[in-house]
Design brief:
Helices cover 82% and strands 0% of the residues. It has helices spanning 4-38, 42-49, 52-85, 91-98, 100-103, 106-117, 123-129, 133-157, 161-169, 174-185, 187-203, 206-212, 222-231, 235-264. The relative contact order is 0.13.
């Protein structure tokens, strides 16, 4: 009895601590979003969504994020599968190197890209990317591909290699076993990874503005519109852009979780 009481108290206090931490963080996020909503005037929504400049920024953000996410998926799937299935000399170095865009400051990453495209070798294609729409895609791709590799590597590691070995034993080559066995089993993870990359690309700012700038009507995305709105002291329109990004982020995060729930059922 003397042992059971302290243990029961410890269990309850630990559970209470976890719930308290959860409630504080949820309340913290709700307070932030709620304050943005409370300070946004209703007329601002009409002003933004009827403005050609704002609509152009939204269209450009959606287009570039979609292209960046598709390119990211094109590279992330084979690279993540290779890292999940093969052991080779220098793997830990390469795996670490691919994570650099995740931890590096976006502004530093954009500066490195800008310097590279203006180097002796990069000048051939530098004008095509610097302060142009392709530069937005390049900056977003550089940021999101690392995220895609990291999430998909975990997905492929959860699929037993034995399934692929059985497929090859039954007559499929590596391409056949990958497309007929591995990809269908990783479908939910691939969809979730694409959605996360797309959402991350939509919100990318530092590398994008450093490489492509924020020229109104040309390279202005939603995040750069927020930056320009603050610089112009146009708070109301800026808050609408912020809420738009919040809506996109919440929707994308919910969609990223749905495939896993469907597969679980």
């Amino acid at each position: 009895m003397e042992i059971a009481l302290p243990r029961r108290f410890g269990d309850r206090s630990f559970s209470a601590f976890k719930w308290a931490a959860l409630c504080v963080l949820v309340l913290y996020v709700l307070v932030i979003i709620g304050n943005v909503i409370a300070h946004t005037e209703a007329s601002s929504y009409t002003t933004v969504f009827s403005s050609p400049r704002a609509l152009a920024a939204i269209r450009l953000s959606l287009l570039c994020a979609t292209v960046s996410a598709c390119l990211g998926l094109l590279f992330a799937v084979p690279v993540a599968h290779l890292l999940a299935r093969r052991e080779f000399p220098g793997k830990i170095v390469i795996d670490t190197l691919l994570d650099v865009p995740i931890v590096l400051s976006p502004v530093a990453l954009g500066t490195a890209l800008l310097l590279t495209l203006n180097s002796t070798c990069g000048k051939v294609i530098g004008d095509y990317f610097t302060f142009a729409v392709p530069g937005i895609v390049l900056a977003q791709f550089t940021v999101v591909v690392a995220l895609g590799i990291r999430t998909l590597k975990a997905v492929f590691e959860e699929i037993p290699p034995r399934y692929e070995q059985v497929a090859r034993f039954l007559g499929h080559d590596y391409w056949g076993s990958f497309f007929r066995v591995t990809l269908p089993m990783a479908r939910s993870g691939i969809i979730a990874s694409f959605v996360l990359m797309w959402a991350r690309a939509i919100g990318e700012f530092g590398a994008t503005i450093t490489l492509a700038g924020a020229v109104s009507g040309k390279t202005e995305t939603i995040p750069s519109a927020i930056y320009l709105g603050l610089a112009e002291v146009n708070l109301q329109e800026t808050l609408v852009y912020v809420l738009l990004l919040v809506f996109v982020a919440l929707t994308a995060l919910m969609l990223a979780r749905l495939p896993a729930r469907w597969m679980a059922k």
